[in-house]
Amino acid sequence: MSRLPDFRLEVYFSRWEFTARHHLTASDAQTMTMAELLALADPDDARAWETLSLGYTETYGDPELRQAIASTYERAGADDVICFAGAEEALYLAMQVLLGPGDHAVVITPNYQAAETVPLSLCEVTGVALDPARGWALDLDAVEAALRPGTRVVSVNFPNNPTGALIPAADLARLAAMCEERGIHLFSDEVYRGLELDPARTLPQAADLSPTALSLNVTSKSLGLPGLRIGWIACRDRELRSRLERAKHYTTICNSAPSEVLARIAIKARDRILERNRGIIAANLPRFEAFFTEFGDLFEWRAPDGGCVAFPRYLGRDGVEAFCTELVERAGVLLLPASIYRSQLTDTPADRFRIGVGRADPEPALSAFAAHLKGL
Where is the Aminotransferase class I/classII large domain (predicted)? Predict the structure, then answer.
């Protein structure tokens, strides 16, 4: 395993995620109970659950799960899907397979840390920063200028974590074509797809746009089922999928059989679950708007275009790091300060924090947050 730095988000969460009274920075949509999920099962999947044998499963993933996943794509079939133990394993192994010494990658920032640090452990990486002054827009000309003859991967994430930003569909299509023309793999993290504020802005999936692109997804974020630990990559490059499978032999080998059946149920019921989760976010956003309006002297708020996280700006003179520490220690309200998203590649804002808007009933957390601010 390549030597990697501490995963700042997970280190922070290991201290606070399960001890803070109010988890106001959750990156997943509202989850459901086992009973609620099983109630969505069709007769065949209910029977599969009841009669499940707890043996090894196929390395590529359960064939019926892969078929269910493929049904969410326009051009990718079941054979174009390989499943992993969550999105993190998929991202890690994809970079190990795609990159090596002498190669080059381009990564947008801010991002989920592994999207940057895993490539950096393998090769040279250039960062291209989203522009906060333009609603976290991506400059495609800057991406193109960053490409080199040795560029093997361009890594993007939309809807973006932590900003909630989207790009126009035409920009993603141009990016996919740009990469394909140059023999570069577009690696597209699409884990928040389906939670767009305006469904008309839902982006096409990269694996549908280009036969060399990789689409990363997972049951954790939009579906709100992180406990299943089921992620996947869709890619129409058969040789690359084979290399991913051989890499997986060194990590999880295969997925959890119960989780694969439960993931199959969830993906078949995807439209109903996403409608529920979009409804929760739509109900929550006016509450967050009202909160940040009340404390407009302290915060600069922008609702996410998609996903269930946002990246507001803190205007206080004490700085966002001290502010987030005091907030969790005194009020029990957990946010993620800007340092969690610090990039080695680009200048990243030092006055932001991540907040989650996808959990049901944020009122107790917002009330504790407000009480803390009023008591300062």
Answer: 54-357
pLDDT tens profile 202-250:
999 999 999 999 999 999 999 999 999 999 999 999 999 999 999 999 9
CA-wise closest residue to 115 among 137, 99, 134? 99
The number of C-alpha atoms within 13 Å of 320 and in the hemisphere containing its C-beta is: 23
Structure tokens, 293: 């309006």
In this structure, are residues 222 and 187 in contact, taking their beta carbons and an 8 Å threshold?
A: no
Tally of residues, the chain: 376
280 Cβ neighbours under 8 A, 6+ residues apart: 29, 30, 358, 359, 360
* CA distances, 132 to each of 27, 135, 155, 349 (Å): 20, 5, 19, 9
Q: How far is CA 304 from CA 278, 296, 308, 324, 363, in A?
A: 12, 18, 7, 20, 19
1 pLDDT above the threshold of 80: no
247 within 8 A of 101, measured Cβ to Cβ: no
HSE at residue 267, side-chain half, CA atoms within 13 A, is 24
Paired tokens of 367: 């009330």
